[in-house]
Amino acid sequence: MSEIDRRTFLKSASALSALGAATALGGAGPLWAQTIAGQKRPDVIRKAIASTGEEIPAVGLGSWITFNVGNDMELRDQCADVMSAFFSAGGRMIDSSPMYGSSQDVIGYGLDKLGARDQVFSTDKVWTSGDGMEQLAQTQERWNIKSFDLLQVHNLVGINENLPLLFKLKDEGLLRYVGVTTSHGRRTEDVMAVMKNERLDFVQVTYNPIDRDVEEYLLPMAYDRGIAVIVNRPFRGGSLVEKLEGEPLPEFAAELQVQSWAQLILKYLIAHPAVTCPIPATTKPAHAAENMRAATGLLPDDKMREQIAAVIGVLI
Amino acid sequence: MSEWWSYGLADFLLFSPRVYFRLFETMNTTWGLAVVSALVAGVIAAGLAMRHGHRGNRVILVVLSLIWAWVSYGFMWQYYQPINWVVPYVLPGFVAEVVLLAVFAARPLPLRFGWRGDFSSVVGAAFIGIALVVYPFVGLFEGRDLMQAELFGSAADPTALGTLGFVLMARGTWRWLLVPVPLIWCLIASATLWVMDQEIAIVPLVAVWLTVFCCWLDLKNGVTTRRMTQAELVEPTD
Ligand SMILES: NC(=O)c1ccc[n+]([C@@H]2O[C@H](COP(=O)([O-])OP(=O)(O)OC[C@H]3O[C@@H](n4cnc5c(N)ncnc54)[C@H](OP(=O)(O)O)[C@@H]3O)[C@@H](O)[C@H]2O)c1
To answer: pTM for the complete prediction?
Structure first.
């Protein structure tokens, strides 16, 4: 099975590059696909991926729950609107997983609709103890994308088989970056062991002003070893911003030009030297734009970061 | 796989309540006639099951088999499967239920439905009543649209609940074969509703406990094992 899926993976990769080349030769893509192509996007704060020096916008977009809308066309279009707002505000990284139901298909639909394949920094995962290659072929088909920028071993599932698989794809030039993920502070020691022993480009962990355990060992280690850090659950699945809603922002927030708690939290995260990119998820285009705006203007210094965590800690 | 222990129930909530309840709205509007027909067939089957007679046993089983087939293909495959990757794993169970109901209907002596007046009958009738009349409209109290009603015969949760009711109303040694699939589905439904913070999650959970209790009670009282009397075996001619 593995070899067949490998071939499917390679074949669809080359078919899609051929398609890309044909589109390029033939000029612009179809009219409906030009929604964001050629659009001028604002400058946003970028962070470097240490292993290559490539810079990416400091806020990304998650897709857990929010993009799992099945075949509901109205909701699919709403997700495409979220993606459109995200790209228009300067965003690039979108994260998904085979575990997220129809999210991968919905992202593929949005990329089609927006003609945004060149814009996206595609980030997905392998999450199986079975045939990783088979799952990756399916993931690629759902995104309908040439190749991925980053693939991660989701929650370390099948790490012994899946990590070598990802490194192999990278060595063959079919993948640009390799990472692992965890969340909710689970298996942090195992993740750090992988960070220590493998040549990872990325690690994805939960981090926000309340869940700060990673600050102690994991983030410094990532920084020292040149591993880029993606932050999941920046709003604790939404409960953090929900609880803070209605509370006045602290006075010092004005210095950072933030208009919401969501932006303050994102700035807190982006300002950490080890953090590359938090990936908040949303169902609302306005929230996607608001979150991206956190990657503009000033960032808090260490002292202000502590103040942010303290204020939020008191209010929660 | 050792990694699984680190997952919590909430990790498996893959969709929002909004997306979940819209599934019923889309299904009800797209398949209105089929949805209403399945509900009416369910109501007729319920009427037949409540009678203290023996006619209609085969009809009830055929109706239930068709309903499970429709729920499997319609709701489960067309609507639920795209947002919940658990569905393909449970779908073979649904198909098994379809086949079992058909096999029971085809037997020379199908299951005998009827009101017995014992505790299990009361519970069975209550399950059927809740599945047909109460379950679909609970959403109204939570501000959901009527079009999002989960109807017996098309939506999986009330169909599983109602089927347990029908089984409790039945006599026949092998009736327990029809219990595991709706029972397991009720557990899954309860867990799903619970992580979505829906209070109705308690209903399928209580149904599971009551079904297990009633099955045990009936076994103890010989309701399912006692040989039927000659009078009970003869089909009435009126
Ligand atoms: N193990 C793993 O690999 C793993 C685990 C968890 C998460 N992740 C990834 O990380 C991503 C982010 O985590 P998450 O989705 O769990 O939680 P999150 O991003 O912390 O929170 C998402 C919630 O925040 C709300 N929100 C977003 N922007 C907002 C704003 N500006 N104002 C107010 N509310 C806002 C959204 O509601 P609205 O829709 O109303 O905006 C949404 O319900 C996931 O989507 C997934 O891609 C990976």
So the answer is: 0.89
